[in-house]
């Protein structure tokens, strides 16, 4: 990980750290995590139930399509009872928390009788696969190129044309870029498929064919996310490096006669890595929910797409489970940053009321 | 006594700020592009007879420059006429949402920073909670469940989720300003709480609030287009996002009606670039050490 000062200094800092203050700070951040999850889940529980609509219509429509809709009203009432929807709201709310704390997310209404946890676990690898790879790749590439261009400044010559391109990429929303990519590579020059995660009818498994098929399908959604976030990492690394160039220790290193490459990567880049790594951790937290619109546009069967379908069909348990998953990943990533930051950056004072 | 020169300094500073902004290349280019888009579409929109705005007013699927400026949709609407409606609506959403978010955030931040104690503790916790929640998720949830939104309700919903970051910044500013000499002096000279906020604190934060407003504006237009594209926008009104939505739902990409979907896409990108340049300009002027471009 990134370091701000030589290792011995960091150690010194940790040793001299009053552990009670640090654990109090961690306790506060953990409480915040719990409150975040609690408030989000409460909102997600009540808001869908306050709007008019009948979640059972999905089941009803399914039954009608196979021809069995003799006594629809009675059937719907029966199903409502099975999902506990005939109980008063506050009893539903309490039993929702009771079940959730036992690890039970309930049964999906629109995909009856599949458990929500099963639907989400099936969706999770697609989302994580798509976003982990694009996030890591764009972060690495953007940081390195951003540092190189930022360091050279006006001397970067022809490479300075990257700056306006990065700006253009960064200001373009990723779903707009997705449309342009669909136009270019699924219509004008149709080399990539338009939607889905693998060809219809192919058997999922660890075969070479299937993996190639998956990569082929992931190309356009991945590119749309990659290019946009690449622009952002590039721009932020570049401005960090430019800001660091005037620092005393850089001048000192220059005065010592160190090679420029060494100063750039060993001194400037390394110090810029800390804020850049924080951004990376935040981005990792947004992996589960970050590409919702992309997943919808490409009908990519990830968590975001599941949640979107759940919202569309008023599938309360699926909405709750999906949102919980997304909120948890964001909150846990934030918590991890909160734990790690005072250890990495000695300048942060975590004790007392002077926190964030 | 020290209040008088400070006041002078302030007005001087504000005068200089406008001058600095007009001399800033990023800001002027962004502002000119933004205002041109807005004014042209507003003025053109006034002169277009309403009967030309309906479906079937033009022959369908016409490419640009063959009868109409930017071509027509599959339903026989002129893309250019749709743009004159969509651009002001999208900008209106940004304006309302940014105003709601900034005002709400400033109020909450002021309250937290000014009163302190348990009020601050509760509000700070709320700010932290809402900062860490991905707002797009809740925007999708709420606008999907509302079934039909219009431009104004959508803008208010977006704005209702835009308050945490201004609230946090305003709170921090108030905390630091509270300890400064001129506020203490104002307190001693018998100014009331509200008067101090209006006459001493707000002028100090105006510049920062402006930059934040542009930020919230960008985020709101972004949220609108994202929500609209997946079908959660104002179905009966035209925004840039809704234009893309309709084009996609008639599969304009694969029917090779490129002018239909490209017009709003290019407009959106230009709008974002203009807003971003304004944002960069504001940043550069208020913090001269930052030279992003």
The fraction of residues in strands of chain A falls at under 5%
Helix/strand/pairing category of chain A: mainly alpha
The total count of strands of chain A amounts to 0
**C-alpha geometry of chain A:** flat
Note the run of SSEs of chain B as H and E.
Answer: HHHHHHHHHHH
Largest interface by Cβ-Cβ < 8 Å: A-B, 49 and 40 residues
Low-confidence stretches of chain B are: 1-14
Biggest pleated sheet of chain B = none
Ends apart, CA distance between termini of chain B: 42 Å
* Ends apart, CA distance between termini of chain A: 23 Å
Q: In sequence order, what are the helices and strands of chain A, one letter per element? A: HHHHHHHHHHHHHH
- Please compute the radius of gyration of chain A using only Cα atoms: 25 Å
Report strand % of chain B: under 5%
List keywords for this structure.
heterodimer; A: 356 residues; mainly alpha; flat; disordered N terminus; B: 293 residues; 11 helices
Walk me through the topology:
The complex is a heterodimer of chains A (356) and B (293).
Chain A: H1 7-15, H2 19-50, H3 57-65, H4 72-82, H5 89-101, H6 116-152, H7 162-171, H8 174-188, H9 208-244, H10 248-255, H11 260-285, H12 292-297, H13 303-312, H14 316-344
Helix pairs in contact in A: 2-14, 6-9, 6-11, 6-14, 7-9, 8-9, 9-11, 10-11, 11-14, 13-14
Chain B: H1 3-23, H2 25-47, H3 79-115, H4 117-132, H5 135-145, H6 151-160, H7 164-178, H8 181-188, H9 193-229, H10 240-249, H11 258-286
Helix pairs in contact in B: 2-3, 2-11, 3-4, 3-6, 3-7, 3-9, 3-10, 3-11, 4-7, 6-9, 7-9, 8-9, 9-10, 9-11, 10-11
């Amino acid at each position: 990980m990134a370091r701000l000062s030589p290792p011995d200094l960091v150690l010194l800092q940790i040793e001299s750290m009053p552990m009670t203050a640090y654990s109090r700070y961690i306790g506060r951040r953990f409480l915040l995590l719990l409150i975040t999850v609690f408030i989000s889940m409460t909102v997600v529980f009540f808001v869908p139930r306050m709007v008019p609509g009948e979640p059972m219509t999905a089941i009803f429509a399914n039954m009608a399509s196979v021809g069995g809709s003799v006594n629809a009203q009675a059937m719907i009432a029966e199903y409502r009872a099975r999902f506990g929807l005939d109980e008063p709201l506050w009893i539903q709310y309490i039993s929702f928390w009771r079940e959730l704390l036992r690890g039970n997310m309930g049964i999906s209404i629109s995909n009856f009788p599949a458990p929500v946890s099963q639907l989400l676990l099936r969706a999770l690898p697609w989302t994580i696969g798509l976003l982990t790879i694009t996030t890591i790749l764009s972060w690495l590439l953007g940081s390195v190129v951003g540092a190189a261009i930022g360091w050279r400044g006006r001397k970067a010559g022809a490479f300075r044309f990257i700056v306006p391109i990065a700006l253009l990429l960064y200001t373009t929303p990723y779903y707009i870029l997705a449309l342009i990519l669909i136009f270019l590579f699924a219509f004008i020059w149709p080399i990539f498929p338009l939607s889905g995660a693998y060809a219809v009818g192919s058997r999922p498994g660890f075969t070479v064919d299937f993996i190639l098929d998956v990569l082929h399908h992931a190309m356009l959604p991945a590119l749309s996310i990659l290019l946009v976030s690449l622009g952002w990492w590039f721009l932020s690394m570049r401005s960090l490096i430019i800001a660091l160039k005037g620092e005393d220790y850089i001048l000192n290193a220059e005065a010592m006669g160190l090679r420029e490459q060494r100063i750039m990567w060993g001194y400037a880049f390394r110090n810029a890595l800390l804020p850049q790594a924080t951004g990376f951790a935040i981005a990792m937290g947004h992996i589960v929910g970050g590409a919702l619109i992309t997943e919808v546009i490409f009908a990519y069967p990830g968590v975001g797409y599941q949640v979107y379908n759940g919202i569309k069909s008023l599938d309360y348990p699926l909405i709750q489970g999906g949102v919980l998953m997304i909120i948890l990943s964001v909150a846990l990533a934030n918590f991890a940053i909160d734990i790690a930051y005072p250890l990495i950056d000695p300048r942060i004072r975590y004790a007392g009321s002077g926190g964030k | 006594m020290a209040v008088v020169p400070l006041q002078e300094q302030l007005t001087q500073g504000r005068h200089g700020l406008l001058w600095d902004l007009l001399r800033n290349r990023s800001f002027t280019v962004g502002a000119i592009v933004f205002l041109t888009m807005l004014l042209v579409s507003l003025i053109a929109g006034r002169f277009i007879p309403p009967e030309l705005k309906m479906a079937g007013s033009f022959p369908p699927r016409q490419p640009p420059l063959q009868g109409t400026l930017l071509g027509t949709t599959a339903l026989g609407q002129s893309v250019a006429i749709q743009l004159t409606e969509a651009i002001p609506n999208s900008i209106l959403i940004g304006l309302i949402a940014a105003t709601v978010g900034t005002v709400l955030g400033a109020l909450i931040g002021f309250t937290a920073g000014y009163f302190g104690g348990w009020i601050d503790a509760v509000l700070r916790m709320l700010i932290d909670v809402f900062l860490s929640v991905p707002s797009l998720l809740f925007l999708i949830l709420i606008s999907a469940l509302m079934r039909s939104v219009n431009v104004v309700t959508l803008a208010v919903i977006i704005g209702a989720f835009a308050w945490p970051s201004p609230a946090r910044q305003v709170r921090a500013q108030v905390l630091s300003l509270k300890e400064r000499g001129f506020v203490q002096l104002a307190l001693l000279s018998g100014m009331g709480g509200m008067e101090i906020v209006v006459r001493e604190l707000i002028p100090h934060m105006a510049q920062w609030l402006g930059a934040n407003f542009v930020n919230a504006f960008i985020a709101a237009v972004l949220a609108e287009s994202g929500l609209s594209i997946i079908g959660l926008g104002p179905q009966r009104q035209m925004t840039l996002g809704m234009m893309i939505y309709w084009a996609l739902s008639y599969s304009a990409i694969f029917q090779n009606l490129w002018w239909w979907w490209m017009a709003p896409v290019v407009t959106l990108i230009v709008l974002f670039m203009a807003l971003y340049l304004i944002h960069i300009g504001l940043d550069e002027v208020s913090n001269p050490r930052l030279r992003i471009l």
